[in-house]
Known about the structure:
Blueprint (H helix, E strand, L loop, with lengths): L1 E3 L8 E4 L5 E3 L13 H4 L15 E4 L2 E4 L2 H19 L4 E5 L5 H15 L4 E3 L6 H11 L17 E5 L3 H4 L1 H12 L3 E5 L5 H5 L2 E3 L6 H14 L5 H7 E2 L1 H8 L4 H8 L3 H11 L4 E5 L1 H4 L4 H14 L9 E4 L18 E2 L3 E2 L3 H11 L13 H6 L7 E5 L3 H4 L3 H9 L3 E6 L11 E4 L8 E4 L4 E5 L12 H11 L8 H12 L11 H7 L2 E2 L18 E2 L18 E6 L15 H6 L5 E3 L1 H7 L6 E5 L4 E8 L7 E5 L10 E4 L6 E2 L3 E7 L2
Parallel strand pairs: 6-7, 6-16, 8-9, 8-12, 9-10, 11-22, 12-13, 16-17, 17-18, 23-27, 24-26
Antiparallel strand pairs: 1-2, 2-3, 4-5, 4-18, 14-15, 19-20, 20-21, 23-30, 25-26, 25-30, 28-29
Amino acid sequence: MKTHCPYCALQCGMHVSASGAISPRDDVPANAGGQLCLKGWTAGELLRTPDRLTRPLVRTPDGLRPASWEAALDHVAGEIRRIQAAHGPDGMAVFGGGGLTNEKAYLLGKFARVVLRTSQIDYNGRFCMSSAAAACNRAFGVDRGLPFPITDVAQARTIMLAGGNPAETMPPFVRHLENARMRGGTLIVIDPRETPTAQLADLHLQVTPGTDLALALGMLHVAVADGHVDSGYVAARTTGFDDVVTSANSYWPERVERITGVPAYQIRAAVGLLARRPAMILTARGAEQHAKGTDTVTAFINLALALGLPGRPGSGFGCVTGQGNGQGGREHGQKADQLPGYRKIDDPAAREHVARVWGVRPDDLPGPGPSAYELLDSLGTGPRGLLIFGSNPVVSAPHAARVTDRLRRLELLVVSDFVLSETAALATVVLPTTQWAEETGTMTNLEGRVLLRRQAVDPPPDARTDLRILADLSVRLGVTLPSHPREVFAELGRASAGGLADYSGITYERIDAETGVFWGGGPRMFLDGFPTPDGRARLLPVRHRGPAEEADDDYPLYLITGRLLAHYQSGAQTRRAPTLAAAAPEPFVEIHPSLAERLAVTPGAPLRVTSRRGSAVAPARISSAIRADTVFMPFHWACVNLLTNPALDPVSRMPEFKVCAVRVEPGT
């Protein structure tokens, strides 16, 4: 059966047999003519995991015990009614995920606002793409991660990637980078570590953690000073350039070198390379997951606009989306401030349109709610009940010990999952759901291409799709929702019609015939203008500020986090795949040899990493690929986000996952 990978936003095409065997497809451009990574090749192992949930579980004094679907759903519905009678509609909350299909994301938002009538809904994409989305929306008037097809990457003479490591996170993406280099292109990578991706680069800018914004401002300063600005493009297609130039005046390269650690000559060289159009600037989580992530992405967009890149073939600015449906998941209503079609929930026209599709009054729809971390942090004192679909916040949320404590305070925690994740283990009720190859639905990959993930194998007899779970629960609460994916997708099309992310012309048949359908008017956006009131892109002045926590005498090092080749997100899937678990069985602390010498530790020795929020112990990995003032830990295990900082970006409400101050000592 033709379908797509369960992991990252490339959504590589694959065939899955009835027995779960995997083979690549060669008709999906994202995975470069039939490429799969280690995670994709082993995805069939998920279908045979021995700890698969097959029956609902309900908590009793003796722990979680099996129950019938009728008993479990009756219990959940009764508790929802009890909690909302005592605490109002916002007594219940919903938390979704960027890996859910478009149909699930849409129905989850509708369930929250029509069935529960709660404003308390957000999703883990707030931890992933929110800063990039906010920056693109305010600069371009729309957010589509790559506003051009991924195959355009091969046309660029220069590609600059800020804070991304696709050689590990999405290896087939590297083929597109290699295609560009084979045509004479140049790769620039900005990263505090010499990652496998940085090792491929022609120029590696090894930036001090938390200073990407200063680097981008320094590059804009050089572009202006060295005459690289495309003045005709700026005059014809943008607004705000003069104010942005003023904001960058004080970021001359030598000053930026002192802030970032990147030599001034490398800053000048990078800008000179980018001035050779066609060129692309791409950002990823390393630059975005900061309390100033929106401004950092804005600064890179300003640079791209000054150089005249967006809207030109083979050129542009883009954000490399991470989660499998990170694009579609943020378009159709599971975000706190959003309605389907990327509409704002406080826009009267948007409310009227969606309410008409849903058969309710606009005034019946709640307003915007809190962002993901703020929602999780309020549990037990705000919402008393929470439904989780497609997320594992015990592992993935910042300041995870506090989030875990908040989850324990709930009167009702319902988790829909196919395994007993760390979060599901805390639940009042666990509902066994189908997984990727056992259900049909659409995904929107990193280039805005809507794809059809088809059911390839039969699920366990008692597992239900999330769509059916929501529909079955809704009936008990007095509302009827659709549960068939094709019916849900058709309704999503009507609800999104006329919005920025308009899916109204997309059908399963078109997706099948065209191997995916781009929303937004086609594969390449901005060729004739931007979807802003005046058709121009907006340059916005920003100023550098340091990390929310600077290193000091008590916490003298920076901790950065990231992904490994063998694992994905919270690891709830990949840590259960034997091949992947064997490849990366445990977390580690990567440290520079000079730090290892000061601590008198050898490879594999236990190290304790401590921040202002907690401690974690993991084996040492000694490598000259990391800066001497920085340590790295992969976040696929529960211990790592015990340390990270929940400081929030004021615009996107993105937590500062990517840098916090720590101390490191030999541990046990």
